[in-house]
Amino acid sequence: MNRMINRPLLQIALDLQDLPSALAPLQKAAPHLDVIECGTILCLSQGMNAVRVIRSLFPDRPLLADV
Questions:
Q1: What single DSSP character describes residue 7?
Q2: Nearest to 36 by CA among 8, 5, 15, 6
């Protein structure tokens, strides 16, 4: 992400306990997002599997894991 951005970045924080519940809003919002965050709750309940799944679905988006 080495480009000049003259606007705030839009980030979604996925703080849900299971992956299917997290993926539903992510799929809807994805076209408008700049950054995806696997929130603490999702990481604690699903582990790094959640990060791997989301990375595979959105390989070109910055992905944060709040662990």
A1: S
A2: 15
Give pTM, 2 decimals: 0.85
Side chain identity, residue 20: P
Cβ(12)–Cβ(28) below 8 Å: no
CA distance 62 to 60: 7
**Residue length of the chain:** 67
The residue written with tokens 């809807």 in the block is: 28
Instruction: Tell me the HSE value of 42 on the side-chain side, using a 13 A CA sphere.
Output: 25
Question: Six-digit token pair at 2?
Answer: 């080495």
What is the per-residue pLDDT across 36-66, written as a single tens digit (0 to 9) for each?
999 999 999 999 999 999 999 999 999 999 8
Determine the Cα–Cα distance for residues 27 and 32; give it in Å rounded to an integer.
10
